[in-house]
Amino acid sequence: MSSSYSLLVRTVDEIPWRRSGATQTKNPSLYVAINLDGIEVQRTQTVKWELSPKWDHMVLIPDAAAVLSLRLFHNSSLAFTRDKCLGTVDTDIATLRKLCGSDGDGDAKVVNLELTGVEGAVKGRPAGTISVGLMRSTQAASLAVDQAQKAAENVATTPGLMTTGGIVVQSVAPVSQLNSALASITSRLHIIVRVGDKLATIHPYANIAWKVLTSVYQVSRKQQDTDEKLLKLVETMVEVYSFVSDVDSLIQKIQGVENKLALAIVKQTVECALFIQEYTANGFCNRAIRNTWTQADKKINDLSETLLRLRASFDGGLTIQTLFVSTKMLEKVEGLEQADTLKKLNPVDMNATLRIPCLPGTRQEILDDITGWLTVPSDSGNILWLSGVAGSGKSTISTTVSESFRALDRLGVFLFFDRNDQSRSHPNAVIRTIAYSLALFNPHIGSAISAAIQRDPAVVNAPMRTQFRELLLDPLQSAEQYIQGPILLILDALDECGDPDSRAVLLSLLSVDFPKLPQLFRVLITSRRESDIVDYFGSGFTNMYLDPGARSTTEDVELFLRHELFQIQQRKRLSPTWPGEHSIQSLVDLSGGLFVWASTAIRFMNGYRPDERLEILVAQKSTAGFNLDHLYSVALRNSGPWDTDKTFAQDAQAVLACVVLGKIPMSDRTIDMLLYSGQQGSANVLEYLGCVVHWSPGQEARTLHASFADYLTDTTRSGSEPWSIDPKTHHHALSLGCLRNLHHELRFNMCGLEDSHRRNADVIDMAQRVADKVSPQLLYSSCFWFTHVRETKFDNIILDAIEKLLLGQFLYWLEVLSILGRIPIGTSALAVAANYVKDQNADLEDFIADALRFVAAFGPAIATSAPHIYLSSLPFAPHGSKIAKRFGSMFPGTLKYQCPLGEDWPRIQKILQGHSNDVTCAHFSPDDTRIASGSLDNTVRVWDAQTGLLVIEPLDGHTGWVASIHFSRDGTRIVSGSWDNTLRVWDANTGALAAGPFEGHSQGVVSVSFSPDSTRVASGSLDKTVRVWDCETGVTVIGPLRGHTGIVSSVHFSPDGMRIASGASDRTVRVWDAQTGAAAVEPFRGHTDSVNSVHFSPTGTRIASGSEDHTVRVWDAQTGILLAGPFLGHIAPITSVVFSPDGTRIASGSKDMAVYIWSLQTGEITGTLEGHTDSVTSVDFSSDSGRIVSASDDGTVRVWDAQTGSGLPGRVDGHTSWVTSLQFSPNGTQIVSGSGDSTIRVWNARTGTPVTKAFGSTSAVISMDLSPDGARIASGSENNVCVWDAQTGTLLAGPFEGHTDAVCCVRFSPDGTRIASASQDQTVRVWGAEAGATVAGPFHAHSSLNSVHFSPDGSQVTSGTADNTTHVWDIETGMLIAEPFKGHTDWVASVQFSPDGTHIASGSRDNTVCVWDSQTGALVLGPLKGHTHSVHSVTFSPDGAWIASGSWDNTVRVWDSTSGSLVAGPFEGHTNSVLSVCFSPDSRLIASGSMDTTIRVWETKSSAAVPGPLGDYPSVDDGWILNSAGDLMFWVPPWLRDGLCLPHNTVVICSGGTTKLDLSQFAHGTAWQGCSDPNFRDMKIDTH
After folding, report:
1. Phi-psi region of 592 (alpha: psi -120 to 50; beta: other; left: phi over 0)
2. In 426-473, where does DSSP find H-type helix?
3. Which helix (H) or strand (E) holds 778?
4. Phi, psi (5° rounding) for residue 1554?
5. Residue among 184, 192, 285 at smallest CA distance from 231
6. Does residue 121 form part of some domain?
7. Which residue in 305, 410, 584, 1174 is a FRET match for 860, CA 20 to 30 A apart?
């Protein structure tokens, strides 16, 4: 081995540092970066807040001729501030040797070097000194041991009894004995380490043990207690290593059988060392595990005995089965059957069979550094990044490390990525695969991960951040106490994991979240230095760089070449003098230090006539610039008859195209099916290409290195060579091959699924079915045909093939995607097809547009269960859709439905639900692929605009409502403004906080807008100001801008970024100069109420504004002149306005729950989008003007088709907002309902048709009651009570005024002469029903009153309050009958007397129903539990036998009023909270009103003689209708759910129409295949 030196970096002194400014409030946090020839090779640790830190950091200097640079930095620790370089000095080994006054062979003499400032005031001036020392590396290692031995001799012993953390430790041995033993064993291990090149197989393990024990020794010197058993173990190790005396005798001893046994001894020593490290609390757990481990004494004995047995065998030269005792698993885990659960993780199969480790004896220095870092705890974090250029040997190093740790039972995860294998290298599978590997590695981890999946099975498909937290962070933290570290996780070739966009979330997780894992989990990452990876790992982590120009690398390449050439010489029986020293040195020089060059050259020479091939390569040395590309050219030209056989050249080029352009590696059989329609041909070609392609018959063909694919497809590199690949040409051939395979192989029920009641995930042998039934070529073609079409120029042949697929086998293709779990591919593929056929085939273009709607609408059902493509998706598609018309008749055995609202797709495309409170804002990303939304739940969410799924985990951080969000122009960031007075900037791909919080506003931030160049953010606030911020630093660059005299509710940048428009509650619009902050024009005046929203037109010449005055106005942006408007139509305040990107329309959202689309030219409404059930808070157009996204206080985000008119194909009579209350008429023939849409309606209880026109006031009807004779209706609204004629809707009396807040409940007295009202003003009032005079009360409570009800004799009223109690008042005296009834733990939302007046039922937000004695307040029944959310309404049946309850869990339940047992229900069908329930006079029916705007009438007992296929009480789960047994029956799309008529429903009243089902021909369960007409099942359908 070559000589090398070690540099000691000790300390610095006299550093100029001034504590001032925002980032210099303390002393500096200093570290030294050590650079060799301009490349940083190591850093010291960061010492915080010290002006003279002491490091004593030793670093290996392998090249004595290298220029050594020491750079002193202050670690700023701020994300937006770079580390500051305080000084630098350049030197070299020769200079240091002179300064140190020796040849580096003795103790290091420390000298001071002067630092020179590099920036600021000290640039070029003295900047303090740095103290360093120098010695040879071998001396450095020996010195460490010698010093340890000397220190051990001087340590005082302290025998006796001691306590540690309250635990009594007996039999404490003398500390010096342990230290002496540790010093002895480390010195003997060091002998093995020093001769590592001669003991290559043993060296890695000896090095690990040496470093671990040296670390333990350094700490143990300072400790005062030692376990006698631990001392015994170390002394046993010393005894075992007595065979190590000197180098020569050691090498002689370790031969033959002894070599294998010596390896076993050293491996066992590593396990002992790691055990000691943890046992003494010096390891990764940071705890004394002797106090927590079970059977620790037994483990020590086992380790000692195993070592002694191995040594005995070594001494006797015996061959025995290798022993290895691991302490990895501390306790046996019993019981949990985890295998099936863990399969749900769907991990990627990582087969390392073909991976090659380093040649023994090579890469020793870097391997030692890596293993040392991985096994010895430090404060440098738990992630090591190994980087280097292509071909520098990163993967072989990672493979070698993995095998070392596998042998030690410490390899938890080994993932390796390949850009030519997308199926195994996509970032979305990384967390799941890591979790699966760790679960198999350790049963404790497996138990924790399995439990997480059992708690939430959907977590396996959750956003990656959720997967990390639920599947890794939480389980690993819970299992940490049972695990001994280190456990290694390797991610090799991270640069080949997806592309920069797709791996952004993963990189963020690795850099931000993986450091949060327990420190015993060590992570090794290798990659090229791609810019996105450098951004995440370039600083703040331990970095190691593979320099191909380093002398040690060149020496290792030479060793590799010598070894491999000798093997060729032996196998080929060449001359003993072959290849010759000159040839070897020529190859070394040609390699440039790249192992990929050397390995490719070896494979080339290992072919026919290696001597001639060697001469060909050596001759290239005289070629200027000969490099890897030249080697590929030489190897290929000499691999086959490229120039003489055109057929070979064409076939070989086509096969190579499949290898390098294929999205995953393909076998020769798959390649044949794509290229030759099954004729064998690729195998013959691949046999010639062994020097550049790894392949064996029947196996996948892979390039040996990613650089080869780059060479073939880059015409500037491969030029006009016959193997050069034009991607477009070959993508064309691959496109046709894929489409041809799809046509030949797709068919109905590909995998023979027997039962439609089961989800794909519940088919236990699904993976085996796919392997048996889906050929590799069909799998490839199904998933990747469109990726090749996308890269192909238009061609009629491909057009015809696409038409044949989509018009003939579209549903079968979706079936394959379903069983593969790849449904998102469908949308991407169809989008590519739509672009390909555009303006070429109008009919096909229309069909693809319909297919896109189909996949977008039914994606959740298709992804869940393949049979439901036919049983749910196809039958529920609109009857007039092209999909239904094309395929409907082929599948007659499905359900049928009737709905009165037309034949076409509704304008509503998506309903996104997930926020737990009102949604305040929604915005399209610039590329329209994502939607961001903000909510009163304090979060920002990012959704896939096509599938409606969350793209990343909700963005948490704000501590107040999120009022506004906006995407940056490049789509990489999202800014949010909140009522917590701050702005935050988020990474739109990862969800990580990119900047902020920005603080400056004194009140809530209600509007934010990115500048067009994405460098600044404007904000408007409740504090009446506008600010402009630097979006990187958070500094206010302009403002605060003052001028508005009211809340600034909206801000928007002009398209050129030069101006900012703002709207405020002072009724004005203002325009500001975005550079200076000056007013650009006088305020725009005209609105008569607050301006809630402003928006610039795409040209920047106009500004639209929306106001509380219900109007939209359009202004000249330069002058403030009104150009158009006011646009009239909304009947409530306008909350949001936006121009369409094409500049022809304006969309507005309003508190009237509607979105209007206005023609800018005429000011007329061209479209009305209705469906929200509460105020619309935000609207935005997609970039193509084709879609609108809206947010609402109803908690949803909706996506609409912006090109057509109404939100639904049509509407029938029905409420358009919450149904707050309802009652049956006395004869049971009618139902009266009140709603948040300000109307009261009367319905036919049997048919659901309206009996009268809607009537009511101008405000929401919060409560309604029908008089006992059915003639009058009382209603409670804002703060008054009204009485109406039930038949004509005429106002008979009122409004009754007296309440000072909202009236939550009104009730007629039993004789109809009085009305009781309960209000949020904390009072109950009793009114005369005719004149409205107050006849009793007000009765005062201590909290808001939610409900009121008369006793049957009319002498008392009961009320439910927000203080969790129920009251009973004597109307005549106004006195409480008894103390408030206490028992509920949350608001009492509803109360009612029983028909006999003896009891009161109450429903509460604590999810329960209680029954009380009406006079004493004693609890006589309950609490009745079953509801999973607030109980908002309770009512007794007329005979008092039952109690019905309606809940925010969307269900109705019926209870026995005596026993409390459930007698009917739960009735499921509502899609939102149930607000009101009532019985019919005969108790046979229950009516329920809901926040979903519908009324449902239920039979308390089914009238059907035999239950239908859904059973008595079907349930609803995210659109799925489950029968009483919980089986999947069918999935209902969102636009049909509200009006869907289910068993027990006699009628459903819905403004979207009632959907009635015909299940008479419905084939399902094990008979589901009967849905298909056998005549069509397997035939190739004619597309014309």
Report:
1. left
2. 430-441, 443-455, 464-467
3. helix 776-789
4. -95, 130
5. 184
6. yes
7. 1174
Instruction: Determine the residue type at 381.
Output: G
Q: What SS3 class is residue 800?
A: helix
Among 1545, 1405, 1551, 1439, smallest CA distance to 1488 is for 1545
User: Which structure tokens are listed for 1209?
Assistant: 């194909």
The DSSP call for residue 1376 is: B
Whether residue 1003 sits in one domain with residue 1148: yes
Q: State how far the Cα of 1532 lies from the Cα of 1543, in Å rounded to an integer.
A: 15
Least confident of 107-116, 405-414, 1222-1231: 107-116
| Confidence check: pLDDT of 1481 > 70 | yes
Question: How far is residue 1541's CA from residue 1529's CA, in Å, rounded to a whole number?
Answer: 15
Write down the pTM of the prediction.
0.70
Does 289 share its domain with 395? no
Crossing angle of helices 430-441 and 443-455, in 10° steps, is: 130
Q: 464 is in which domain, residue-wise?
A: 339-546
Tokens of residue 1125, six digits: 């408007």
Do 307 and 396 share a domain, yes or no?
no
Does position 1208 have pLDDT exceeding 60, yes or no? Answer: no
* Alpha carbon distance 1317, 1305 (integer Å): 6
1251 CB neighbour count, 10 Å cutoff: 17
**How large is the average pLDDT for residues 1268-1296?**
92
- Strand pairing class (487-492; 521-527): parallel
Beta bridge partners of 1231: 1224, 1243
- Residue 1060 falls inside a structural domain: yes
Fill in the DSSP letter of residue 25: S
CB–CB of 1281/1259 below 8 Å? no
CB of 1176 closer than 8 Å to CB of 1155: yes
The pLDDT value given to residue 569: 87
Contact by Cβ (8 Å): 420, 702: yes
Predicted confidence band of residue 288 (pLDDT cuts 50, 70, 90): very low
Which of 114-128, 1003-1017, 1021-1035, 1396-1410 shows the lowest mean pLDDT across its residues? Answer: 114-128
Q: HSE (CB half, 13 Å, CA atoms) of 180? A: 12
The label of the residue with tokens 């109360």 reads 1391
Please indicate, yes or no, if residue 1458 is contained in any of the structural domains: no
As a whole number of Å, the end-to-end CA separation of the chain is 76
Identify the burial level of 689 via C-beta atoms within 10 angstroms of its C-beta, where 0-12 means exposed, 13-18 middle and 19 or more buried: buried
CA 450 distance to own-chain centroid: 19
- Which amino acid does the sequence have at 1377? I
Distances (CA, A) of 136 to 59, 209, 742, 834, 972: 11, 22, 67, 69, 50
Same domain, 531 and 609: no
Query: Percent of the chain, pLDDT > 90?
Result: 47
Distance CA 772, CA 759 (A): 19
CA–CA–CA angle 245, 250, 251 (5° rounding)? 160
**Residue at token pair 């309950």:** 1422
Phi first, then psi, for residue 989 (nearest 5°) are -90, -35
CA distances from 1430 to 1344, 1390, 1445, 1447 (A): 17, 11, 10, 6
Q: Are residues 793 and 858 in the same domain?
A: yes
CATH of the domain at 125: 2.60.40.150
The residues near 154 (Cβ < 8 Å, ≥ 6 apart) are: none
**Domain end position, chosen among 546, 578, 597:** 546
DSSP state of 1555: B
Quote the tokens at residue 424: 């195994």
Q: In whole angstroms, what is the distance from residue 706 CA to residue 723 CA?
A: 16
Q: DSSP character for 173?
A: P
User: Is the pLDDT reported for residue 1085 higher than 80?
Assistant: yes
Q: Are 1356 and 1348 in contact (CB under 8 A)?
A: no
Distance of CA 660 to the CA centre of its chain: 30
Buried b (16+ CB within 10 A) or exposed e, 710-720: bbbbeeebbee
Helix (H, G, I), strand (E, B) or coil at 913: strand
